[in-house]
Automatic annotation (TrEMBL):
One of its GO terms (molecular function) is peptide chain release factor N(5)-glutamine methyltransferase activity. It comes from Noviherbaspirillum humi. Signal peptide: none annotated. This is Release factor glutamine methyltransferase. GO terms for biological process: methylation. The lineage of its organism: Bacteria, Pseudomonadati, Pseudomonadota, Betaproteobacteria, Burkholderiales.
Length: 274
């Protein structure tokens, strides 16, 4: 037994079974305690039932299951998001895409988030810019159900569409299109490591060269962007040059890439000339 009745919260966090931050999050979730309560009740002994609840969560983490899926939540751009195995876990580097979009979205503008997953990008943008008309699409009904709940939870209005990329958009045009599509190359070793083992493969890889979804989005964007509208894309650490070439090939202007906090070229984009 990993966790026995009678053990204290302090002893669990010192036991070394998990990273201390992971241990704090799991214990707090299992017992319904805040961070302050974890500190003030550090010497409280766990009952048998509490010990079993903590042990179950610790065992799942030791098997590699992501913390976000265990507790069912991850923060993104300062907002809480429900996450489950139907959607990718929102990551800090994707906040760069939100920041770039906020800088380029005109007043009362319209935007489309393609492959929305948990809705993190669309909901964050709608929260920061309540004047904007925000639409988001995904091919997965399960992902859209999660995204709708996240929009409601964070009190924002987002139009959600079930669509294979532009299929359900018709002839609509937007002031900005943003996407964090599947871009990991098929067979990449990272897909069988860490948290990625538990996340939906279809949201991670295009099962090809990593650029097929990016090609579709870039090729279709000119007829779905308003003149002067921006297309912003997240991509892999080594794909910036290829994405810039695709953007230039479709007639985008001011094509450039931006680096994340780790110094990696994580996003690229350009605008449609007026």
């Amino acid at each position: 037994m990993l966790i026995a009745a009678g053990v204290t919260l302090a002893q669990i966090q010192r036991a070394g079974l998990l990273d201390p931050v992971d241990a704090r999050i799991l214990v707090a979730h299992a017992l319904g305690l805040s961070r302050v309560q974890l500190i003030t009740q550090a010497d409280r002994a766990l009952s048998a039932d509490e010990a079993r609840r903590v042990e179950n969560l610790v065992a799942r983490r030791l098997q590699g299951e992501p913390i976000a899926y265990i507790v069912g939540e991850r923060e993104f751009f300062g907002l809480p998001f429900e996450v489950m195995p139907d959607v990718l876990i929102p990551r800090p580097e994707t906040e760069l895409l939100v920041e770039l979009a906020l800088q380029r979205l005109p007043p009362d503008g319209s935007l489309l988030d393609m492959g929305t997953g948990s809705g993190a990008i669309a909901v964050a943008l709608a929260h920061e810019r309540p004047d904007a008309t925000v639409s988001a699409l995904d091919a997965s009904a399960g992902a859209l159900a999660v995204a709708r709940r996240n929009a409601e939870r964070n009190g924002v209005q987002v139009e959600f569409l079930q669509s294979d990329w532009y299929a359900a958009v018709g002839d609509r045009r937007f002031g900005l299109i943003v996407s964090n599509p599947p871009y990991i190359v098929a067979g990449d070793s990272h897909l069988s490591q860490g948290d990625l083992r538990f996340e939906p493969a279809s949201a991670l890889t295009d099962h090809a060269d990593g650029l097929s979804a990016l090609r579709i989005i870039i090729a279709g964007a000119p007829v779905h962007l308003q003149p002067g509208g921006w297309l912003l894309l997240e991509h892999g650490y080594d794909q910036a040059a290829a994405v810039r070439e695709l953007l230039n090939g479709q007639g985008f202007s001011d094509v450039q890439s931006w680096r994340d906090l780790a110094g990696i070229e994580r996003a690229s984009g350009g605008f449609m000339p007026v």
